[in-house]
What does this fold into?
Amino acid sequence: MQSLDARLAAHVKASGVPPTDVDEAIAQVVHDQGVDAAVRAFVAASLAGGRHVAGVMGSSRISCLRRAGVIPFTDQAGARP
It folds into this structure.
């Protein structure tokens, strides 16, 4: 059985980058916005509570976009992973 991340990556890849179906595109945007809001709330609450946050990054969508050539395979220093 594939991991959830592997299944999500396969779904995103099968949907196209960007998705060709309008309903799929809307679902992905709503999902991404929800995750973004949750991460922002978590980071804000962490900082307000005196905790440090080192970083939050990555997703199956990023990997699919990179494989599709939409996002280059570079990090902030410009090195290929």
User: Anything to note?
Assistant: Residues 22-48 form the longest helix (27 residues). The two ends are 27 Å apart (CA to CA). Residues 4-67 form one domain.
